[in-house]
């Protein structure tokens, strides 16, 4: 390849890289970590989580911290800390969202956001994928309105009834997997499981528990039946082998008796 072709290829690669970088929005350089963020929480439960933002002014000297949540009765508390870890500012906000202006002249090396709120009712329960609520989303909003998501956290909301149904379905899934691994037929159990999931999605949790229990029983029964069949099969094979051995011994002895008579 001559130098002219190399130059054209290099120019093309640079152009592609520039187009790709222009098409992909830059992510916020601010990093965030969470403490006390639950994977699941019961409807009506009080939740408190804290999010820590490091290097708040790594890119911009002034910007707005925006927070959003699906919790109810929410209070946000924003605290600023200097390099030595001393608190240098604090503000509180109510509501499902807030905006807090950050300026580098405040000399904040770390921003701590604490959210306190109540888990809201679930409008639509689903087994798979499990329903999710937004615990918190933190955004970096710059002058002019452009915004990048710093990070977001979700959790699975549940009620006592929905959690019981989910556990029953998970138990049935485990029983079916075990039975299938043993070589048992699980089609009946799988049908019951599908019905249980449908009942869950329809928020008929009592029925979901009942059907999941039937799926588990069906899977267990199929596994036991398969084990018994295998035991009978092994026993039958063992009996055939034993009969063959006895027959061989008897034949050998009869041959020996015939030989003795001939002598």
H/E element order: HEEEEEEEEEEHHH
Strand order of the largest sheet: 1-3-8-5-6
Between the first and last Cα atoms, what is the distance in angstroms? 98 Å
CATH class categorisation of the largest domain:
Mainly Beta
Shape: elongated
- In the CATH classification, which architecture of the largest domain applies? Sandwich
The CATH topology of the largest domain is given as Immunoglobulin-like
Number of domains: 2
Jot down its keywords.
263 residues, alpha+beta, Immunoglobulin-like, five-stranded antiparallel sheet, 30% strand
Task: Give an account of the 3D structure.
It is a single chain. With 263 residues, the protein is α+β, with helices and mostly antiparallel strands. It has 2 domains: 27-158, Immunoglobulin-like; 162-236. The chain is 44% helix and 30% strand. The protein is built from 4 helices and 10 strands; from the N terminus they run αββββββββββααα. The chain has helices at 3-23, 160-181, 187-201, 205-262; strands spanning 31-35, 40-42, 46-54, 62-68, 72-81, 87-94, 97-103, 110-118, 133-141, 147-158. The protein has a 5-stranded antiparallel sheet with strand order 1-3-8-5-6, with no helix packed on it. A 5-stranded mixed sheet has the order 2-10-9-4-7.
């Amino acid at each position: 390849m001559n130098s002219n072709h190399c130059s054209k290829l290099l120019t093309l690669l640079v152009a592609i890289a520039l187009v790709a970088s222009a098409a992909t929005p830059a992510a916020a350089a601010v990093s965030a970590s969470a403490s006390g963020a639950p994977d699941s929480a019961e409807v009506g439960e009080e939740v408190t989580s804290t999010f820590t933002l490091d290097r708040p002014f790594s890119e911009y000297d002034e910007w707005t911290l925006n927070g959003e949540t699906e919790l109810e009765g929410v209070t946000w508390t924003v605290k600023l800390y200097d390099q030595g870890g001393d608190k240098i500012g604090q503000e509180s906000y109510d509501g499902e969202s807030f905006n807090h202006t950050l300026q580098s002249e405040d000399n904040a090396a770390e921003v701590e956001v604490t959210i306190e709120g109540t888990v809201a009712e679930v409008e639509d329960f689903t087994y798979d994928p499990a329903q999710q609520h937004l615990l918190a989303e933190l955004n970096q909003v710059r002058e002019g309105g452009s915004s990048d998501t710093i990070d977001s956290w979700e959790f699975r909301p549940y009620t006592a009834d929905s959690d019981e149904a989910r556990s029953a379905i998970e138990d049935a899934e485990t029983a079916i997997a075990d039975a299938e691994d043993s070589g048992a037929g699980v089609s009946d159990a799988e049908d019951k499981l599908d019905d249980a999931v449908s009942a869950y999605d329809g928020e008929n949790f009592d029925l979901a528990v009942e059907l999941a229990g039937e799926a588990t029983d069906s899977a267990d029964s199929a596994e036991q039946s398969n084990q018994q069949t295998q035991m009978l099969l092994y026993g039958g094979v063992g009996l055939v082998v034993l009969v063959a051995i006895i027959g061989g011994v008897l034949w050998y002895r009869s041959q020996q008796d015939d030989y003795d008579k001939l002598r």
